[in-house]
Specification:
Blueprint: E1 2-9, H1 12-22, E2 28-36, E3 55-61, E4 66-67, H2 71-86, E5 94-97, E6 101-104, E7 107-119, E8 122-132, H3 148-152, H4 158-173, H5 180-185, E9 193-198, E10 203-211, E11 217-220, E12 226-229, E13 234-236
Parallel strand pairs: 1-2
Antiparallel strand pairs: 2-3, 3-8, 4-8, 5-6, 6-7, 7-8, 9-10, 9-13, 10-11, 11-12
Helix pairs in contact: 2-4
Length: 243
């Protein structure tokens, strides 16, 4: 894998997309930026991080050749790669919050964004944005955020952390199968009665039971009926202030 280190860039994912258009010399590229001026999360959300204190990066993988309905499979594999990277650091109570957040306890420490490159109905390449709060200690406007340093008291070298993460992402995405069971058992709120809010703000209680193959969250109501939700159509009430 080719690694590129940048001082400042608008978006590492945008940089990678432009790079790939100009050259086909590498099938795996990792780009780490000290600072992003226009970092992006899912559904157009912004990603904010202090200069030099966090992991703000993207990974490009070519020659993927998966059907376009496998996008959430890639999302799951990347989430598991993040877990594999954090496990040796002994980060407490690490969980995946559907669809793309990484938690320590009930605080967000990171997130991922998978953007496919399509040829017809086939995903030929992917650009994966990664954000992990590493050494930043204050999040005055983000009540649900924390960092690796906050939860362990340790300071981390960001570049080797990213190199490990990028290699784990490539290994996981190129694996022949998705570890669906491990993904499910790592989910925040699995098999628990959780408080949710619908898109219109209506609250309800339901048990989180599964994530469908297309990425929809599956919950079961007290009467035994199940309901599926697309991204952005509901939120966990505990994280409603974090949207």
């Amino acid at each position: 894998m080719l690694f590129i280190r940048l001082s400042s860039i608008d978006s590492t994912s945008s940089f990678l997309k432009q790079w790939v258009q100009q050259t086909k010399a590498h099938n795996a590229i990792g780009v780490l930026a000290e600072y992003q001026t226009n970092g992006r999360g899912r559904m157009g959300n912004a990603w904010h991080a202090e200069r030099g204190l966090n992991l703000t990066a993207s990974v490009y993988l070519g020659n993927i050749s998966l059907q376009n309905n496998a996008l959430f499979e890639i999302n799951k594999r990347v989430c598991l790669a993040v877990l594999d990277t954090l496990k040796p650091l002994h980060i407490p109570d690490v969980k995946l919050k559907w669809p793309n957040d990484i938690l320590s306890g009930n605080k967000k420490i990171g997130g991922i964004l998978v953007e496919p490159i399509l040829r017809g109905n086939t995903i030929t390449d992917v650009v994966i944005g990664c954000g992990i709060n590493v050494n930043q200690t204050g999040f005055p406007e983000l009540p649900c955020a924390t960092s690796l340093r906050n939860v362990t008291g340790e300071t981390y070298a960001i570049e080797p952390l990213f190199e490990t993460l990028a290699k784990n992402i490539e290994h996981s995405v190129r694996a022949p199968i998705t570890e669906n069971k491990r993904y499910l058992t790592s989910l925040y709120g699995l098999d628990e009665v959780c408080e949710f809010e619908r898109k219109d703000g209506t609250p309800f209680l339901a048990t989180l039971t599964d994530v469908a193959q297309d990425g929809k969250l599956v919950v079961e109501h007290s009467d035994g009926t199940q309901e599926c939700f697309e991204e952005k159509t509901l939120v966990f009430t505990a994280f409603v202030r974090c949207r």
